[in-house]
TrEMBL record:
One of its GO terms (biological process) is positive regulation of mitochondrial translation. It comes from Euphydryas editha. GO terms for cellular component: mitochondrion. This is DUF155 domain-containing protein. Belongs to the RMD1/sif2 family. InterPro entries: DUF155, RMD1/Sad1-interacting. Residues 146-324 form the DUF155 domain.
Amino acid sequence: MTVFISRIASLTLRQLSKTFASSIPDISPARTYFIPKKNDLFRIGQHLFRNYSNNIQPTTMAMDNTALPLKKKTVHKKVVLEDLKKKEGHYLTLAYATAYSYDLKALREGLLEQKLYEPGTLKAQEIGDVVVANAVYTIGDEPREIIFFREGAVVFWNCTELEANNVLDFIKQFEEESYPRDVVKKEREVMTYQYQPNAKRCHLQDQESSFVLVPHNDNSLERYTFSHAMAQSARLGAWEARLEALAADVRAHAAAMEREGAARVEKKEVVRKLGELFTLRHRLNVESDLLDTPDFYWEEERLERLYSNTVAYFTIPRRTRVLNERLSHCVELLELLSSWAADRHHVRLEWMVIALILAEVCFELLHCCERYLLDR
């Protein structure tokens, strides 16, 4: 009986060894994907080596544009505040994206308690996610105005940089998911505006980075349109900066793959990074109006044309498209790391099963030896 059990255990161990040996992929030459040097997002050299086993299926989230060259962040030429020439009749316009969203109700109450700005609304009833604040104390003939967007952006008209910084400190208590202050400063948009006596309609002078308003006229909707486009550009800049930070984390794992030929990464960390990328993609493509013109402008052909021209000036469509492509490449690499981590976990489980079987065989052999000695 003991000999029979030993033979069964030996045959089982031999069969498991053959199965495990067959599951190990053959060593084959690594496939080399050439990435153009000018489009090197992760900066890991000119070659990215990937070695897939025959048993690992391609990830289900593979993107259709993986064959496209990796694109860099599209950076439009930002206007620097220090480089602006102070011209007579030109006033400053600043746009910041400071958080994912604002609590407008609490913000309105805070402005009333502060008694420095009088909150109001635009004449159009369709615009509900915005608060317009006019300064109580005037400096000069031109009034100062601040437009707060629920999406976490604020635009200052005829306000100094010092005043803008004070307001940014004030609204921090009403922010949800605040952005880093250095990102807020770096991704701000700077423009000027002026009144032209002969102007019949508001328009954008892209060569001077200036908005042209009609004097002695109610330009509130035009101000809102210009502000909305500037806020969209600032928000997109903040998301681009967030992707840069995520790409920097992925870059370290990609460099380790190139250097060591293996990825030492935990699946939990990879899933967390994938969650951040999917959240960013959802906000970019679903929750924002960057892919299409907002509904408010559909019935206002004049404002729609103004909004489209301003959005084109800030290269928002192209930046959005490139950001989506860069997100796709980051997701593809993280899914590769996730498959790698899952495969390592399966290998560990197989070794644990083999170790348990070996332990059981050893115990059985000890029992056999003990019975043999007792029989003698």
